Structures are given as structure tokens and as C-alpha cells.
Amino acid sequence: MNPSIVSASWLNDKLNTENVIILDCTLKNQLLKQPLDIQNIQIKNARYFDLKFKFSDLSDPFPTAYPSPSQFEEEAQALGINANSTIVVYDANGIYSSPRVWWLFKSMGHQEVYVLNGGLPEWISKGFPTETKTESNYSEGNFKANLNPEIVRRFDDVFNNLTTKKELVVDVRSEDRFNGVVKEPREGLRSGQIDNSINIPYTKVLNNGKFESEDHLKQLFKPLKDEDRPIVFSCGSGITACVMYLASEGILKNKKAVYDGSWTEWGEKVKTE
After folding, report:
1. Which residues pair with 31 in a beta bridge?
2. Which of 16, 95, 129, 214 ranks highest by number of CB atoms within 10 Å?
3. Which of 100, 116, 136 is nearest to 43 (CA)?
4. Listed residue (155, 141, 140) closest to 234, CA to CA
5. Where are the beta strands (DSSP E) in 18-61?
6. What Å distances lie between residue 92 and 9, 60, 119, 131, 252, CA to CA?
7. 247, 200 Cβ separation under 8 angstroms
């Protein structure tokens, strides 16, 4: 079983444990796609993790860009997160943005972080406690960011890999986007793919908002297991690449990383002739 994924029942048993902090990581634009009756509720005791505006580098021209360790540390402390906190992240889509937040914490050196499989819909389906969303202030935590750059790839890393080919880039966008037969969602962004990359859509690791079975995932990742290179996951803007990264935990022994800028950055910076 994936050591970084927890069930709704597991979280419900830990709901009143002192050092457990639950983070609602739903992106606001994604929340609007959910039924009205869940748009204003959260898991009991959850705290809102503002991925887009507080935990992204807003000076970067690309969306949800990787924050500095100092920014991440300051915002995490403001949420009352401590160095010894056990963190459980979820989103209202089941599985979408929560793996990005899990990966961010991992990249900042925090190991006790887990993703709720099925997110808020799964929690509600089990009849576990919810509450109306409210703005809250928390006692400042003592979280410390200790950057783990091994699981983060930047533009120069991926560009240099065009020559060295030391790492395999796995693009998790849809097949049509990878093949450039549909327009990109971002206005003015060209279609296409990173040279030498392969395509495995992230939707193949999910089933109705939850991760597929371990057997299914083992079969899906089998071609990557046969690779003797590290794997770099890429997507549109660094969100769903983290879904794929998390799905491969406990299955792929290859070293793994996420290309933070992904196609939004690559398609802008690297022009075709």
C-alpha cells in the first residue's frame, strides 16, 4: 500500500489528535465545479491552505509557481503548523490539488504528510463530521523549511536533459494535449510536447476521485520500472504531475521529481522552428 495515502476512516480516528493538522487544499476555480451543497463545507477542524496565492511565488509569470523556502515557512507557521505536525491534505475534487501540497511539504523536508484518498466527497460519503467554512487565526507554529531539491526540477534541468537524456520526462497531460491536436487551456500558449518525453495521462491513476488499485498502478507503471533512469513528471502547470508522482510512491524505485514549470513554462520559453 502507498504509505503516503490515508483513508477517510483512518483520518476520522485521528480527528481529535493534538498534533494532526488537516488542510483543505482545494483550488477555488476547481471548487466551483463541485455540487453547491459541498462548496461551503469542510472537514471538521480543517484549515484552508491557499495554494494559489499564499504558497506560490506570485512574482513568477507562471501559475502556482514554486515558492521560496522562506515564504513557505512563514505561511505554514501562520497556519499553526509545527515541526512535529502530522499533516493530512485533501481537496473537494477527490484527488487533484492535494498531491501538489503533499509534494510541496516533502520538498520542504517535512515527512509526516499524507493525502486523503477520495478527498471531501469520500469523507462526506462515509458520514464523517463536517462544518461550515470559517476564517480563523491560529497560534503561530514553529515549522521549519529544509529544502529537498532532489524532487524538484527547474527549466534549466529539463533543458539540459535534452542533451544528456539522463532522465525520462513523463508528461501526464491528456493524449490530445501531448500530441498537440487541441489548444492549450492557457491563452496564447502553443501546443506540443517536450522532446524525448513520453505520455501517461494522470487520469489513468484515478477512478471516481480515488486512486486506482495497487495492481492497476503496478501494471500502469511497469514500463517505467524497466527504465534505469530517474523519472521527471510534467503536466500543464505542475499540479497533476504531483498526482502521478504520488501514485507511483511505493511502486517505482526510480528516483522521481516534478518539473515545476511544466508545459506552461516550456511552451512559452522553447519555441519550435
Report:
1. none
2. 95
3. 116
4. 155
5. 20-24, 41-43, 47-48
6. 17, 26, 6, 14, 27
7. no
Per DSSP, the three-state class of 128 is coil
pLDDT single digits (tens) 29-72:
887 777 777 889 999 999 999 999 999 999 999 989 999 999 99
**CA 24/CA 51 separation, integer angstroms:** 10
3-class DSSP assignment, residue 104 = helix
Question: Whole-angstrom Cα distance, residue 15 to residue 248?
Answer: 27
The residues near 273 (Cβ < 8 Å, ≥ 6 apart) are none
Q: What is the pLDDT of residues 129-138, one digit of tens each?
A: 999 998 899 9
d(CA 234, CA 257): 9
Q: Rounded distance, CA 105 to CA 244, Å?
A: 16
Residue with cell 476564517: 135
| Rounded Cα–Cα distance for residues 261 and 65 (Å) | 7
| Bridge partners of residue 43, in order along the sequence | 130
Rounded to whole angstroms, how far apart are CA atoms 132 and 238? 30
Which pTM does this prediction carry? 0.96
Query: Residues 242-269: pLDDT tens digits?
Result: 999 999 999 999 999 999 999 999 999 9
Between vectors from CA 249 to CA 22 and to CA 177, what angle results, nearest 5°? 95
